[in-house]
Structure formats: structure tokens, C-alpha cells
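Listing S7. Sequence submitted for prediction.
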Amino acid sequence: MRLNILLAYSLALFLPIASFAQLQVSPGIPAATLATSAFGNGITVQGTPVINCNAAQYGSFNNGLSSSLGFNSGLIMSTGNAAAAANPQTSNASNSIGATFSDPQLTAISAGATNDVCIITITIVPQCNTLALRFVFGSEEYPEFVGGNFNDVFGFFVSGENPSGLAYDNYNVAQLPNGTPVSINSVNANSNSGYYVNNAGNSMITYDGLTTVLLPVLDVVPCQPYVFKLAIADAGD
């Protein structure tokens, strides 16, 4: 079972279709539809997802494979307008939503990540013992602001029963295989470059840089509830 996410950072961030087609984004969709767009078979969404974002910041997307994204459809979250992901190489892909909030899990990764915050919380019940997750992180801060104060960040925090013992308590699965949390300062042409994609000149999807498709796997207990907290924020601007 897979959860598919494109984290599209505007300031910095699911039917075969003909090749070389542009990414398609449907922003501000209802919460129940949003959850359905993100999950594959074998996962039940419990209750209604809680969305703490401007309606322009989230939605569903498709046509990802034809856009060289790495997977076809899923959930998109942005610190700006999510629809900008499908407007390649525009000069106005970066914009401010204006929301400021200090989330303790996000600021633990990047202290200044309090601007244009978007948080979506979904409770799911898996029918299997392993969840395979897929996500891509993209940013307009690449490559100019790597190493600076604009370390925009994404966290995917999980709470629930851990079959190995101590429960997951906002455990961040948005990490590289070496345990490094994903951000522009941790994944770029100089750091962990094997997970970085220079996206300049791509005529089908916005953002100057992307990660490769990241594939964390989470061990779970079948038929037990898990809270997924997906959170993004801009740091410094």
C-alpha cells in the first residue's frame, strides 16, 4: 500500500496519458477526496482529514509520469499556490500565502520554518503490516539559496503502534535512507546529491530542483489506527 505525495514548495513548496504532457493539478478539493487521491488499496481513512492550509495550498495531481515526476498521481501540498506546479518555469512560481505558525516538529528540523505553513492530518487504518510511502520534494529555492537561511522543510510525522515496541510519536518518515531529514539544505547538488534532480528547463513541471522519488517503508500493525501529519513551511522568507 502506498501514499503518494508531491511536496511542491512555491517559495524556496494522481489512467495513462500521452507522453510529454504537463502535470495536472486540482487545488482545494474536499477533504475526503483529498484522502482518496493519496492512498492505494488496503487503506481505510478514518474520519475526515483535518486541513490547516489555505485552499490554494493543497490538492490532487495526476499526469506525473508523463511529466517526468516519477509517479503518476497523489496529493500535492505547497507553501504557495499548488497550481503553480503545473505552470512550468514561470517567474511568479514563488508567492506568499501569509500564514505564520510555529509547529514544534517542523521547527525542530529547521528553526525558522514558520511561514506559509500548511498542515494536513489524516488518520488511516492499514490492512497490511507494511506501508510503502512515495514522495517528491521540490523547491524554487534551488539552487541559488542552498546553504542559506531559506531552508524550507517538509515533515511527514506518524503516530501509532510500532510493532517493534515503543509507539511512534510524531516519527518523521520524510528522511533519506541515511536518516537525514529532507530540506533544501540537506538534499542538493552538493549534499546527498544522489537524491537530487536539477529540474531547470523542464517544460512540464515547475520548480528549479526536485528530489528523486523517495521511498520510506513503515512497519505497522494491521487494523490499528495511525495518524499521519503532513507539514510544510518556508524558512526565512
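Caption to Listing S7: primary sequence and predicted C-alpha cells for the chain studied. Residues 7-20 have pLDDT under 50 and may be disordered. The chain has two helices and 13 strands.
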